[in-house]
Amino acid sequence: MYKLFCDSNCELWHTTIEELGLEVIKMPYTLGDKEYFYDMGKDTDFEGFFKAMREGAVPKTSALNEYAYTEYFEPVLAAGQDIFYITFSHAMSATFNAMNSAIAALKQKYPERTVRTVDTKTISLGAGFIVYYAAQKYRQGATMDELEEYVNELVPHTATYFAVEDLTYLYRGGRVSGVSKVFGNLLNIKPILCFNDEGKIVNIDKQKGFKKAMAALRGYMAEKAEGLDKYKVFVLQADCPEAAKTFVADIKAQFPAAEVVVQPVGPVIGSHCGPGTIGLIFHAKER
After folding, report:
1. Domain positions in the chain
2. Does pTM surpass 0.90?
């Protein structure tokens, strides 16, 4: 037997996590002088978090250490079970160095046990999309080999696109230059970003104004989406529920077969993309 793990950077809602019986590795963030671990929306003050950001607060995120991963994994291994962990993009964080060290030490202590990890090469509900459908296979009794094959087949077909309101937050994370930030905000330029095959964020387009940016996101969906009768579409919003509501209405008008799930962006991801971000995740011919 094995346990299926994900991390809070997949951003699946807490009730979904509970329904699927997933084990969650919670990622930390700091606001002010207090550290938190994202609880998948169970008791999260989304409004207060993004209000603080709009008022100038600069939240911080950090990597877990080797001890933290050991604390999550060892009880499962000690109980005689294996681990299958579907992670967010390894290209996005140094936390996986600590994870690999923890796994190496645990394999020496529990040589008869298996710890397997698969990189979704995306983050937020892009990773959540993959975890969600992998969990269906897991609940149906898929072996670890079968599940790994399924996830690896799904990864290149999971498209994660997003547009941001303010370039400042991407600038802080090194995603855009200082000049781009200044002129982008002055000119109301909204960059469109996605994840490439290496799991890195790339800027693929720029639109003037949020309305055109949302139309561009729908354009990518029209060009690339497939299996809308089989796979859900996820929309993320960072403190902009009305904009998301309009965006979802436009998606449903253009794609009547789509089942759309809307969620708020959590504080860890929100620390980097900032308030006003809209994300779109769907099954695609190619990411």
Report:
1. 2-155, 157-283
2. yes
